[in-house]
Amino acid sequence: MWRGPCRGPAHAPAGEGARFYQACPVAATRVHALRRGQALRLPGLERLFKVYAFAHGLRAITRLREPAMRLSVRPILFCLSLLCLPALAAPVAGLYQVREAVADQQPETRDAAMQRALQTLVQRLTGDAEALQSAKLEGLRQDPQQIVSQYGYEGDVLLVEFDPASTERQLRQAGLALWGANRPAILTWWLAESAEGSQLIGESQGPATMLRDAAQHRGLPLRLPLADLSEQLLATPEALAANDPQALREASERYAADALLAVQASESGGTWQATWRLWLGDEREQGKAEAADPAALADAVLLAVSQRLAPRFLVKPGAAESLTLVIEGADLSRFAALERLLEPFAARLQAIDGQRLTYQVNASPEQLRAQLALGQLQEVAEPQGAAAPVDSADAGTEAAPQVLPRSNQLRFRW
User: Fold this and answer.
1) What is the pLDDT of residues 252-300, one digit of tens each?
2) Is 72 helix (H, G, I), strand (E, B) or coil?
3) Where are the domains of the chain?
4) What pLDDT is recorded for position 407?
5) If you average pLDDT over residues 113-142, what whole number do you get?
6) Of 183, 136, 140, nearest in space to 315 by CA
7) Which residues pair with 260 in a beta bridge?
């Protein structure tokens, strides 16, 4: 979502935004082009943005103390930081769009496909195959179209667009925990084995479409390696089956993904089978799947992966509390990525002090830790002297006050 007063050189805003356009007109042209979806590239532009940002952005902001003044420059920071986003959790495109195969366009066929689309959507958002069976969703099961914004046909596929606001409202009223659109980008090493040998599926190969379709169907941001000669030689069955795939980790660094998925798929007796292993940070998940054909196998594997990941990031109704979040080591290149990570928690920027950002968020500590781990942020201990003092019960004594850590504050840094 585009925020703030960055509306292009022809519509320069007042205040801080006006000074931004006057002082950096080339950068303003870049922002205006980004808003129109153009890939405008000018020599040295990224360096220009960084120099301007540090000279006229963070230094000036640290002198602002009034909330209205401080927050007025927040949109400008967001606009600047869009140019140099690091690779973090990826927003899922088409999260509320579901495609279901149909044999014809008869009303009965359409209604059955609409039911399947609703089941697919609810499972994407909750990670729970049984969530739609909640008694509180009886009305929605009987009439899925109450949350459908539009639908149509593309050949033998029914394309259903669900309304995000209506969908989330109904599911939250039913007491379901939801998984937001920002999800771990998964680099997938998919090794297809056959009697002729094994082949690593790369991003430009034919089977890649099958894997992308399955990932979209299950609401996961998928990335594939190039599968060049060096990677084909590296991706052996032994490497993919290793408990610690150090070689795959090193080869995956250039793709800047959040999670690593290794899959060995093969056909036996007319049935396709797969063994998969998923690494997210230092944690590992694994499982097996089987299906009648390669496309169904890809869907089964990614469904299982989605079900394992979802519980880590679900935002549960009633489990959230008001927390103070302090981010250290922030800079403009990380600001927009941080804003994306904090979207599910209604984050409000409270203060900026040099490279320290202070937010107020609504989340549980566990949810917040899991989400920030996607941005490679590390939790740090509260500095000495920052804890809350507790008055002594005996006012006449001179003993030092008891100091307790602040339970509602979390600190992270890059």
Assistant:
1) 999 989 999 999 999 998 899 999 999 998 889 999 999 999 999 999 9
2) helix
3) 1-84, 91-173, 184-312, 318-414
4) 64
5) 96
6) 183
7) 187, 279
Q: Is pLDDT at 14 greater than 70 in this prediction?
A: no
Three-state SS at 93: coil
- CATH number attached to the domain at 318-414: 3.30.70
CA–CA separation, 331 and 382 (whole Å)? 21
* Cα–Cα distance list, 409 to 322, 341, 361, 412 (Å): 9, 18, 10, 10
* pLDDT given at position 408: 87
Q: How far apart are CA 310 and CA 278, in angstroms?
A: 13
Q: Report angle CA 146, 150, 155 to the nearest 5 degrees.
A: 130
Q: What is the pLDDT of residues 355-407, one digit of tens each?
A: 899 999 988 888 888 888 888 889 998 775 555 554 544 444 455 444 444 56
Task: Name the architecture of domain 184-312.
Answer: 3-Layer(aba) Sandwich (3.40)
Is residue 272 within 8 Å of residue 297, measured between CB atoms?
yes
Q: How far apart are CA 408 and CA 358, in angstroms?
A: 13
The rounded distance, in Å, linking the Cα atoms of 42 and 308 is 43
Its pTM surpasses 0.90: no
Pull the structure tokens for residue 22: 């006057």
Cα 173 to the chain's mean position, in Å?
Answer: 24
Q: At what angle do helices 74-81 and 16-23 cross, to 10 degrees?
A: 40
Q: Are 255 and 273 in contact (CB under 8 A)?
A: no
Phi, psi of 282 (to 5 degrees): -95, 0
Please give the Cα distance from 177 to 134 (Å, whole number).
13
